[in-house]
Design brief:
With 229 residues, the chain is mainly α. Helices cover 69% and strands 0% of the residues. It is elongated and about 110 Å long.
Length: 229
Amino acid sequence: MWPSSWTFHSNWPLLADDLVVAAWKLDGAAAADLPLVEEADHELLDPPEVPERGWPEIFAAELASHPLILQDLGSGRQGDGVERVLERAGLTMSERLVIRSFIAGDETRTTAADLGWRPQTVTLLLACALRRLADVEAWATPPAARQPATSGIRDSPGEGLPVALAKGLKDDPEALFARAGLRRPQLAAMRFWIQGRRAVDAARELQLTPAAYCGRVDRALERCRAVAV
């Protein structure tokens, strides 16, 4: 910047030649670049926004190779499809609780605090769940004989219950519970489980932690499995 307008006007004659040359150079450069600008593909310079695509389109090739996963994801209400995929993969109830938080983007410490578990426990369960899910060929294309006997019952642990146990739970669960000698806390947990309630929701209504609810269901199922015929 000039110290004052008087200084600028005083030095103007000395700057005139330089300013003229600079203007000439700028005009020449612009004229030389003009054909390039006219020939340029403006869509490449300012491309349109990429249209949004849903997950079926993004993962079309992978889902075409595993139609059972596509079938599970497209069934039921929103979120039910994921539950069925986790069931088909054989994740335990505890692994499902952890993997749901992982899918939601929660950190290990946050998941541990929400579930009342140690971070080391959450890390171990998450590793086991991811290892099961990664082995797609082992569970996504099972033969007919390995179809889960409890399809339709959500939050059932393991890779599917024995046929006799699944039949007893479907035909007359209360009679099966009586033969198994379930106590009242286990009965309450199993009734929620039979209804297909999510473990987190059922635990909240029973005023339990999800881990305690899962433990009651697992112990009750062991008793029922022992008396199922």
